[in-house]
Amino acid sequence: MNLRGYAMLEDAFEALKTFDWGADPKVLKPIDDAIVATYGDAAGRRELENKLLELLKSDVSRAAKDFICRKLRVIGTAASVPVLAGMLTDPENAHMARYALERMECPEAAQALRDALPKVNGALKIGVIGSLGARQDAASVPALAALMTDSNPGVARAAVLALGNIRTAEAAQALTAASVAPEVRPAVADAMLACAEALLAAGNKVQAMALYKKLMSDDQPKHVRLAATRGMLVATGKSE
Predict the structure, then answer these.
(1) pLDDT tens-digit profile of 127-147?
(2) Which of 12, 64, 174, 203 is the most exposed place for a label (fewest CB within 10 A)?
(3) pLDDT exceeding 70 applies to what percent of the chain?
(4) How far apart are CA 86 and CA 175, in angstroms?
(5) How many Cβ atoms from other residues are within 10 Å of residue 193's Cβ?
(6) Nearest-CA neighbor of 201 among 163, 169, 170, 160?
(7) Among 163, 187, 174, 176, which residue's Cα sits nearest to residue 209?
(8) Taking a C-beta distance cutoff of 8 angstroms, is the pair 63, 23 a contact?
(9) pLDDT above 90: percentage of residues in the chain
(10) C-alpha 196: how far from chain center
(11) Distance, CA of 175 to chain centre
């Protein structure tokens, strides 16, 4: 980076310290440009990440923290996880912290989300559950399975949907084993269909067939039984 570019980047970080909603986002563009320019440059990315984390830990506005989390979603490493994990219990900033952690490939990001589950309730717990599902985090299946019978229907439904997103054989087993509240059962059917489709695509026809058969019971809505029938036909090679 040339001297002019470096100066512009420093100015952008200074602007980020006082950035708030309604401000011209163009003042932060040098940070975006630097992220692009440092692609493949681990040291350069690490320097940017450290600068962003320094500000994220400070008393900057929510708008600035949103911007930082969006950048960490792209360049964040395990070094960012402790700071983002600390935000998961903060109602104002938890959403953006999860947004960053969902995309980060390091295992520490998934672990931070799993560790947050017992620390949050209500909407925050639902958000963490959704992020684990978005990451397709197979290691969270036991914890999510336990939450399918949570007294909060929103939490229980979120756990079911997350298992449907994870789509492993273990997730499918958890879905078939749980005795959930009536209001959660439609979500279970949808999640089981998603798991069956994924298992079938992976060549696990026996496991997929077992799920489809469970969805053929009379207590399932017509559209679920139709989807299960089609899945069984695909599994046996009798569909188009």
Answers:
(1) 999 999 999 999 999 999 999
(2) 203
(3) 97
(4) 31
(5) 20
(6) 169
(7) 176
(8) yes
(9) 91
(10) 21
(11) 19
Q: Which residue type occupies 12?
A: A
Q: What is the pTM of this model?
A: 0.90
**How many residues comprise the chain?**
240
Q: What is the average pLDDT across 9-21?
A: 95
DSSP classification of residue 184: G
- Report how far residue 106's alpha carbon sits from residue 90's, in angstroms, rounded to the nearest whole number: 22
**Burial (CB count within 10 angstroms: exposed 0-12, middle 13-18, buried 19+), residue 8:** middle
Residues 6 or more apart from 3 whose CB is under 8 A from it?
none
Instruction: Tokens 């994990």: give the residue.
Output: 85
Q: Which of 160, 204, 163 is nearest to 186 (CA)?
A: 160
Residue 234 near residue 225, CB atoms below 8 Å: no
Using CA atoms, how far apart are residues 144 and 187, in angstroms rounded to an integer? 14
pLDDT tens column, 177-223: 988 999 999 999 999 999 999 999 999 999 999 999 999 988 889 99
Does the pLDDT at position 64 exceed 80?
Answer: yes
Name the burial class of residue 179, with classes exposed (0-12), middle (13-18) and buried (19+) by CB atoms within 10 angstroms of its CB: exposed
Which residues contact residue 162 at a Cβ distance below 8 angstroms, ignoring those fewer than 6 apart? 129, 130, 132, 133, 140, 144
Centroid of chain to Cα 73: 11
* H or E element that contains 190: helix 185-201
